[in-house]
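Here comes a specimen:
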Amino acid sequence: MIKQLIKALKDTKSITGWLIDEVETNASQAFYVMQKLETKRQVETTEYNITVYKEFSEQGVTFTGSSSFAISHRLSLKDLNQKIEEAAYAASLIKNKHYDLVVGTKKRSWNQKPFPFEPFDLLDKIAVTFFAESKSNLRFNSFELFHTTTANRIVSSAGVDYKKTLHRIDVEAIPSFDGEDNKVELYRFFTYTKVEFEQFKKDAQAALKDVLTRYEAKAIKNVSKADVILKDEDVRNLFVNLISDYSYDSIYRKSTDKVIGDSIQKDVVGEYLDINLKPSSKADAFDKDGVLLIPVKVIDKGVIASYYGSNQYAQYLGIKPTGNLITMEVAKGKSSYAKMGRKPHLEIVALSGIQIDMYSHYIGGEVRLAIFFDGKEYHPVSGFSFSGNIETCLSNLSLSKETTIIQGYEGPKYIVLKNMEIL
């Protein structure tokens, strides 16, 4: 199929460049209902995303337009040529400032080490590990597992020909609790790139504990201010939002007035932030444009150390692209989780999302479920939001010694936002 695509693209005179992104997926899937296996399925797919580029000039200004289309099966030459021409026309309407495609070196490939079990055997072992933590009225109503091997190859008119093979396990779980007066459920999603049965066990215990907390939760009362403890995915989302203004795209669009060397943490009385971006593994070697990924330190002791981002916007800024890195690594802190929890606080269990606005100095979020510690007792609570000053939070930030590894994030499992308004 790639040979057919390359020939057709090379023969098209109305474009000046092209890139083929081939994704072959081999997925083993297992579906459980009420902790009983219902279905097993093997799925193999191959999809192609083709991007065509067209350079053109208007009034002495050169532009690089681009347009993409996807195909999942072999087309006749006539149909393929028609799709290419349609994309070429669409590209001629896109007036992006001129940039060059990534130039390839030599044909290369990278392979992540596969898991140490056959796919369905591993899925069965994970399910058994999760279900071992359940009880008759506290269990997983729905449990779906996906063992996915993805082979991603990109080929371009600029000489790129790279391929990487990656493996992961995804788990979608709905833990439930059957109480005396009603039944409650939660949705939980886990991604694993390593086989660690102790981690599977901890995740199962946490999911079941969270759904029990939801059953017991009541509306929060008489709390106007409190320290807020975030964990896992919410910590990742906060840091992703925090550094989003320092991508090449944001810098080019002037989304921030800060530059390299500026501090994002002023008058620090808490702990300094160190934030890096890196490939998800050694095999995750390139991005969708063919940039060979380079780890980058974005924040160094609270100071902006580097920008990061794609080939296109790196060229606009006149700097070397790092590539689109998807894994954040944050240095762990000095505070233990036990120490964080000694004073009254709200520990967030489920957050609808966190918002940051550096210009208005705002940080906040809507809380679906949390646990309030009043200094003596723990109270499951729900239905409120918190807000505060992001600069004040960053100056007085606490990062946990305990770390976590989740999809796209490696770093402190918990952080404390001090003295938040509870609404």
In short: Residues 219-422 form one domain. The mean pLDDT is 96.
